[in-house]
Amino acid sequence: MQVTVTGRHMSINDSLRDYAEQKFGRLAKIFDAEPLIAEVVLSEEKNKSNPNKDIAEVTLRLKGHVVRAEEAAPDMHSAIDLAASKAEAQMRKYKTRVVDRRNHAGQAVKTAPGAGQIPEEEPAAEPAVSRVKTIAMKPMTEDEALLQMELLGHDFFVFRHAETDLVSVLYRRRGGDFGLIQPSA
Q: Does residue 50 surpass a pLDDT of 80?
């Protein structure tokens, strides 16, 4: 497993880098055959009144899927532990829903690498486009789009529908169920 640890507006010492590599390197045990890439970003929040000022973010790139986890804690080691636990839970969910189902049903689930990566944005004083994200859109079913949305931890997911070949939006409704927006054909 390839683990890259970087610091955002802070320097990372060797012991902290080794700790993060060890914690996120354990996630490779969940997937034996699939190559994994983990990008870990550690940062400190400048607001000193917030007790959870150390932040650990991880993006795991699996074969065709992306898993993200972000956690904050009073110290960096705790933030890394929380993010690793969250990422592990998401990866186990992915494995039981997709990989095991694929092995038992004999069907392969295919999605575009990096599909649906929509960054979280901070609210600005004036409405403005602060970031543009381009994604590769391969056709997928509603179930695959729902799984990808849950793995990313977002409230919506844009995808190309496999049956209609039209761009669709899957979103989480207030009641907890999901909605699908499709253009008229």
A: no
